[in-house]
Specification:
Length: about 375
């Protein structure tokens, strides 16, 4: 039952770089390699290209170009947003609200803040990974100084109520700043920072067919002059993000954004829905969540560990994820936070799709999953 060509169904982890992004990066590296801070023509050309690329990404995000600061990745953006918000609001309260299903780039800074004496509320999801707006509203208080809530969960694909958080902050007369990790949502779920009511928004390139090593942090216009940089050094990015700008990566990021077709989202959703129907019909498979986002589906094979299923499928050229670091076979923190039977958590597998995904690939995945469930073995 082996196959020669790998089938990649782990687009929530990273995506293949599209030709347009690769070509844009190569062109800048080979021809437009000047330092944007240099005053001669090669440097000025690089600065103009960087501005144009920033304009493209800001336009897609629905913000002003001056509100978009380039970073190295989503993790840097999340860490910076949290630290900047805390420094701005440190004297206004001691309470923070986040969720128990955030990416580690948010959870780890929250754990540190908790150790430093801040009160952190971790909102729990329901059995499908949803967090109700009423739960968010009840958690936000007048002494809440930061709310950090992801837009799309990276393991179950649910869309979290970020707009409800913004409304609750206002209703509570709270000074809280609102940060959202929109890494999984950018270009896949329609939104803008203004529509969300967010002050800080994290995005990155490699989840949408751009390269690794480049991301961006949206900073609301009235905060740009107030926040402090995460790093210290030169005056790049308005003095907020020092270090010579990654011009090739920025060019590739913008090219990937431009190459994202208007019909991609529905095409991806169609394949995901097909997969949900086909996989959930297999005896021995539990559908954990269809997810609201178009590209992420969570299932479970409760008779096996998710890690072992991922490894078995990988041996046959199918690339999926357990959605977990799988330390000693434990479920990820996302599935652990969900009120699911232990065996369902243990057997959780994430399947995620991109524009290149096909129903034929899903059929091959289903064939192998059916073999595992029917034969009660991970051997092929």
């Amino acid at each position: 039952m082996s196959i020669s060509t790998p089938i990649y169904l782990d687009h929530a982890a990273t995506t293949p770089v599209c030709p347009q992004a690769a070509q844009a990066a190569l062109k800048v590296m080979m021809e437009g390699f000047g330092n944007p801070s240099s005053l001669y023509s090669l440097g000025k050309d690089a600065a103009r290209r960087l501005t144009a690329d920033r304009d493209v990404i800001a336009g897609a995000l629905g913000c002003l170009s001056e509100e978009l600061i380039f970073t190295s990745c989503g993790t840097e953006g999340d860490n910076w947003a949290i630290q900047a918000a805390m420094e701005l609001n440190r004297k206004k309260g001691n309470h923070i609200v986040t969720t128990a299903i955030e990416h580690s780039a948010v959870l780890e800074p929250m754990k540190r803040l908790k150790k430093e004496g801040f009160e952190v509320t971790f909102l729990k999801p329901d059995a499908e990974g949803n967090i109700a707006p009423e739960v968010v509203k009840a958690a936000i208080r007048p002494d809440t100084i930061l709310v950090s809530m992801m837009l799309v969960n990276n393991e179950v694909g649910t869309i979290l109520p970020v707009r409800a958080a913004a409304d609750a902050i206002k209703a509570a007369n709270s000074p809280a700043l609102l940060h959202t990790d929109a890494v999984q949502g950018f270009l896949k779920v329609p939104f803008s920072p203004k529509e969300l009511g967010a002050d800080l928004v994290t995005v990155c390139a490699h989840k949408l067919r751009g390269p690794k090593g480049i991301g961006a942090l949206y900073v609301k216009k009235d905060l740009v002059s107030k926040i402090k940089p995460l790093l210290l050094g030169g005056g790049q990015e308005k003095g907020l993000r020092p270090g010579t700008e990654a011009t090739a990566q920025a060019a590739a990021f913008a090219a990937a954004v431009n190459a994202w077709g208007p019909d991609f989202t529905e095409a991806i959703r169609s394949v995901k829905d097909y997969a949900a129907d086909v996989l959930s019909a297999i005896p021995g498979v539990t559908l954990i969540s269809r997810g609201d986002a178009p590209h992420i589906l969570a299932i479970s094979l409760p008779d096996f560990s998710g890690q072992s299923v991922v490894e078995a499928l990988g041996s046959q050229g199918i690339c999926v994820s357990s959605g977990s670091a799988c330390h000693r076979g434990k479920p990820s923190h996302v599935f652990e936070a969900m009120p699911l039977p232990p065996k369902v958590k243990y057997g959780a597998v994430r399947v995620s799709f991109g524009p290149e995904s096909t129903e034929e690939e899903v059929d091959r995945l289903a064939e192998l999953v059916r073999h595992i469930c029917e034969k009660k073995t991970l051997l092929f």
